[in-house]
Amino acid sequence: MILAQRDLADFWAALDLYRDPFMARDSVSEFLPELIAAYGNTEALLAADFYDMLRDVPPSAASFRAFMADPPNDAEQFHGTASWAIGPLLGDEPDADGALSRLSGAINRLVMQPNRETIVRSAAEDKHAAGWQRSTRTGSCRFCRMLAGREGAVYKRESALVAAHDNCKCVAVPSWDPDAPEVPVYAYVASQTTSKMSPAQREKHRARVRDYLDANIPV
Fold it and tell me: Do 173 and 119 meet the contact criterion of CB atoms below 8 Å apart?
């Protein structure tokens, strides 16, 4: 991840940001597929090796090799990310650092996506796996802590997604504990992808999540 951020910073520094932000946007859109593919494939390989290493430890058994997820490769998504990232350049006082911060957060999420999906897909296809756990770190946001559920809780449904925000540090970890509790039903609902929702549906979904966080998850 550090190397991806370094390459992004080097690329960003070479752009003529203030003369034509929209040309910078198009350049970023063209650069993202190469960057995400290079480091996303590495993350998928690391996750697959991690899964296979853990599976060699009892009580797992039988022959199995982890599934490797592909990096995201959606030109429309990359263009949308670049368009959103350059927002701070379009104000009365252009903020290149603010734009780079936005883009860096998105890069973090996109590069880590194959890592998380590799674990989730592998656990879904592995008949010896009980599911997968969302592992948070100290200081994780309320949204991540809600999705993680109580300690040891697992996602068991094949359709479960690893909901991640920009700069999210959560990882997915396989579980072979047949007695592991399942995460709350609401976590499945909250983790639904919003990319195919209309703007109104997306805002309604986010409002429900915010209300649940306020009522159930301490700050």
Answer: yes
